[in-house]
Amino acid sequence: MRGAAPSQDYRQWVEHALRALGPSTPAAVYKWIRNNEPVPAADLSGSTADGENLFEKNVRWARFQLAKEGAIVGPKRGIWALK
User: Using an 8 Å Cβ cutoff, are 20 and 32 in contact?
Assistant: First the structure.
């Protein structure tokens, strides 16, 4: 069984999702990635020490990193979009 996906994979998956979907909610991005990218089962079913879903945490972290670099913007609250 493959272990957790590297953070670079998550960054690419978030970009792929936003290219395909356009400006989207986090829920839509999670769904698109689950359906279109090779996310390891360990990530999908795993959780952090505080009970948070590992996959969703990694997607949010990738979005944060991309936003910090200026590649992603939030045109309005709760919406992610490529710059």
Answer: yes
